[in-house]
Amino acid sequence: GAFSAHPGWMWPGQQWYTDVGKESYGQKDMAKAKRLLKESGYNGEEVVIASNTTYVVMHNASQVFLEQLRDLGVNARLTLTDWATQLKRRRTDGSKDGDYNFWFGGWPLVASGPTQGHLIFSKQLNFANLSQTDPAMEAGWNALKSSKSLSQQMAAIETIQKRQYEMVYLLHLGSIGLLQGWRSDVKGFEPFLMARFFNVWLE
């Protein structure tokens, strides 16, 4: 299928891909999860998941996540809205006032390079709700924005990705690709991250 399970935030095969943190990805260890949950002092508090019915991949993934949390012994509840309403919940700092604990979404990787690809880690997007600044994440993001070479970019990306897995700020499930096919009489079409139809004609 189009789904690819891997630990990186860029596509495997891209020059900015790294598997730093892979030891924390996809462990599938329920016994360990239960032990960590007990050590955390969790006492049955409700955990709210925010997802939507607009995008099937997000909806389905949140359903699986809900059942996994319940199997773990977590008092979990899934709230479903349309995508626009879910975005509004996030932009009104819902996680700060207790509206949700987990927010399901997706992040498009475009061709503009690693800064756009890792914008999800910027403070203005996903870390404005932290009670205090994470110096490691901020240093990695600032280093990425100011990088002038591939080696500098990779060092910053590895810093960001390593810290993300240590703190579990985001849960990376995998990547969804786009399967594209076209008839033999379609000319000028070139596969890309999304379907492009300029300079395309029929013969």
Characterise the protein shown here.
- It is a single chain.
- The chain is an alpha/beta fold and 203 residues long.
- It is built from eight helices and seven strands.
- Strands 3-2-4 form a three-stranded parallel beta sheet. A two-stranded antiparallel ribbon has the order 1-5.
- The mean pLDDT is 85.
What is the element layout, followed by pairings?
Elements (H helix, E strand, L loop, with lengths): L2 E2 L25 H10 L6 E7 L3 H17 L2 E7 L1 H9 L2 H4 L4 E2 L10 H4 L5 H4 L8 H12 L3 H18 L7 E2 L9 E2 L13 E2 L1
Parallel strand pairs: 2-3, 2-4
Antiparallel strand pairs: 1-5, 6-7
Sheet with the most strands, sense and barrel status: 3 strands, parallel
Order of helices and strands: EHEHEHHEHHHHEEE
Count of β-strands: 7
| Helix residue percentage | 25-40%
Q: Supply the number of helical segments.
A: 8
* Strand coverage percent: 5-15%
Strand arrangement, major sheet: 3-2-4
Indicate the overall shape: globular
Q: State the end-to-end distance.
A: 31 Å
* Rounded mean pLDDT score: 85
Alpha-beta content class = alpha/beta
Unreliable segments of 5+ consecutive residues: none
